Amino acid sequence: MLVYVIRRMLIALVVLWGVATIVFLLLQVIPGDPAETMLAGSGASEARIAQTRQDLGLDDPLLVQYGRYLLNALRGDLGRSLYSNRPVILTISEQLPATLQLAAAALLVAVILGLSLGILAAIRAGTWIDQTVMGVAVLGVSVPVFWSGLLLIWIFSVSLNWLPATGADGWQHLVMPAAVLGLVGAGPIARLVRASLLNALRADYIAMAQAKGLPGRAVVGRHALRNAIIPVIALIGLQAGFLLGGTVVTEAVFARPGLGRLVVDAILSKDLPMVQGVVLLIAAMYVVVNLLVDVATLALDPRLRQ
Amino acid sequence: MGTVRPLLWKCWRLLVFTLVSMLPLLAACAPTSGTPLLASPGPEANDQPSQTSDRLVYGLTLSPSGIDPHINASAELGIPLTGVYDTLVYRTLDPQKGTGEQFVPGLAESWELSDDGLTYTFRLRRDVSFHDGTPFNAQAVRANIERIADPDTQSQKAIFLLGPFESVEVIDQYTVAIHLSAPYAPLLDGLAQVYLGMASPAALAEWGPDYQFHQVGTGPFKFVEYVLNDHLTLVRNDDYNWGPAIYDHSGPAYLAEIEFRFFTDPASRALALEAGDADVMGELPPLDAARLRQDSRFAILPIAIPGEPLGIMLNTKQPPLDDVRVRQALLFATDRNAIVQTVFSDESPPATGPLTEVTLGYDPTLAERYPYNPDEAMALLDESGWADSDGDGVREQDGQPLVLDAVLMTWGSVPEVAQLVQSQWAEVGIALRTETLTYPAALEAVRQGDYHIVPQSFSGSDPDLLRTYYHSGEPFNWSKISDAPLDNLLDEARSISDPARRIELYNQAQQRIMELALLVPLRDPVNLNAASARVKGLRFDAHGWFPLLHDVYLEE
Predict the structure, then answer these.
(1) Cβ contacts (< 8 Å) between B154 and chain A: which residues?
(2) Interchain pair A34, B209: CB under 8 A
């Protein structure tokens, strides 16, 4: 197990290097010049813009810029934002907690809702309960957050005055954002749990268990679900990654700080070090989550351990 | 199969473990104390407001990535920081009316301009100190101006407000001179803006590049902290006793504390206001503003913004727009009333020229120049040799259809406006091909010059801003115009100080711009602010964007 984890961590390093390189190249390809964006409309002359470009090191050969970026990143220095001249790492560490809170709370909602709805739909397959639950799942995925978020604000903040509409000061501020984001994540989990569980319930060992006279709860819980859960764990891992990077609209609707808004603003203003820093961090978190998923799968599936 | 514990149990354990390990994160966001969003009303509720313990929450539309006024350029940073800094002079609140006094004393009691127009001398107030106790004097002014002019500061806006700045000289402890290399009439306008606000030299020296998180001015409010995307907090400066005449009252501000929060999603701004999450909110979508107008709990404060209107710049180097008749046809073919009505719910006036109606030097005679007149547009197109010979609805000349390429950006409802423009121009036989880009990408596309039209809008209180977009020597001259008479007008108007003569020259420049048909003006921007009806005394300065927070109080 240890060897496996170490090997996976080495692979993770290679993945991160690849991500860093791709992000670097992508930012070169996307049109737009940071110096010009920064000075547009301010009365700056052509010469002044050229000077700024040079000061920012944007005139250096691509390879030099790439080398400088990698070396600094290896030393843990992600550079300074072009706009705030503040170390990127400081800004990221300031915005990260809000994103982690939202992603964790939304994942909690997604997993609890997804698992319970999925199991319910599977054991009542073909009934109206199944159809209703699957309808809700589809609705959860297809209703956009910018709409469901506003709806919740209108109901629970403006009309009922139960919850604060915006901000990130306490757990009350987390309820609605986690609910709308969690609902999006719950849909796919519920569908997969249902499909996977139905598949498992058709297996011979289930017929065997039933023939032995085991009660339905034991059949589902002890025999079917433990086989059905493996692909679900992988999906939850993917969802976690999605939630880390996919919080931008939720953050905007509920006026929350976070990485999503940070990176979108940075991309729109061509703040290269900021974009690189945030993307690298999200990639790193993705890699870690994936590693956790693999270890979890290994722990849950004895066949893989042989 | 051995007697393994049920796998479901294991799975449950892992789930619990994962979730429990996340709990500290969730716990971290639990409230530390039960602070309500809005503080209790002030101790006394007389007709005469006084210093209260009231707290105001003010909603901004974005969280500026850098907020050092000497360095960064966004308008949003000025909304909170106008309360933190005083400026040497202040612009009177309705400068567009007449040619009277444009500026009133601020930190400078009086000032004079040398006969050659190259030296401004300021006599400073002697009773002012910064929030950190540092005395305000001529050395402080020098430290500020020199910081802005230092190339290492990388100023993105303030340095350009100083124009042809040469040096700053301390004459005595309370007299300071700014020397220019060429006469520059807009200097006082620049000095009246928060970007040239006076910061404590001690704080500048202490914090260096981190100064933006530790700002110290002389204004009615002290800077407390700024957390990106979350909040920016100010508290009252109880020693403040040197406010300019544009403020309604002297002495310290009424409010004890102001918290600025950031609402990037336009759709949730009105809801946040209704939910009580904010007391003031900027840039409401027009439909939400119309809805809140019907609600007595709120007041709508529409503020027209001086500067250049939202308009479409026409690239005079790209055929067929090198023909002035075709450009004029575009002006006649555009129904700006319909655009303002449809996209902006009649909340902003249709634009008529390169300056908005509330801008100093605005020429009202331009209003009649290009009324909506499709017949006139078609006549001009016929005259310039564009005709629809194959009957497909699009005109052509020598087999080439009349297709224009537009570089669009996502701000200011530009995509929605472009749809209407597209259908209006189609009626006279012009096809519009649009490409919507991010701002940096649009700038690059424009620099490469391969476009016919590009949207533009720019706020500013001195008509010298026309220079940025219409002078042949400027990099953002997007109509690519090179017209000697226009250059001369803009050059002369920036170098003379007689306000009446300047306005005359800017009138001529505006007429020249419209004669050359460099711009299709569409809409005068209006900032639709909304506030809880409790908020009293909220007014905005001459730049339109910046609230005079000093006079604001809450009624109970």
Answers:
(1) 52, 55, 85
(2) no
Question: For residues A112 and A239, what is the distance between their CA atoms, to the nearest angstrom?
Answer: 13
* pTM metric for this prediction: 0.86
Which value does ipTM take for this structure?
Answer: 0.84
Written as one letter, the residue type at B458 is F
Per-residue pLDDT of B49-65, as tens digits, reads 788 899 999 999 988 88
Closest chain A C-alpha to B546 CA, distance in angstroms? 18
Closest approach of chain B CAs to the CA of A113, in angstroms? Answer: 13
Q: Measured between CB atoms, does A111 come within 8 Å of chain B?
A: yes
Residue A54, number of CB atoms within 10 A of its CB = 12
Question: Is residue B59 within 8 Å of B168, Cβ to Cβ?
Answer: no
Which DSSP string do the residues of chain A spell out, in sequence order?
-HHHHHHHHHHHHHHHHHHHHHHHHHHHHS---HHHHHHTTTT--HHHHHHHHHHTTTTS-HHHHHHHHHHHHHTT---B-TTT-SBHHHHHHHHHHHHHHHHHHHHHHHHHHHHHHHHHHHHTTTSHHHHHHHHHHHHHHHS-HHHHHHHHIIIIIIIS--S-SS--SSTHHHHHHHHHHHHHHHHHHHHHHHHHHHHHHTSHHHHHHHHTT--HHHIIIIIIHHHHHHHHHHHHHHHHHHHHHS-HHHHHHTT--SHHHHHHHHHHTT-HHHHHHHHHHHHHHHHHHHHHHHHHHHHH-GGGG-
> Are B444 and A31 in contact (CB < 8 Å)?
yes
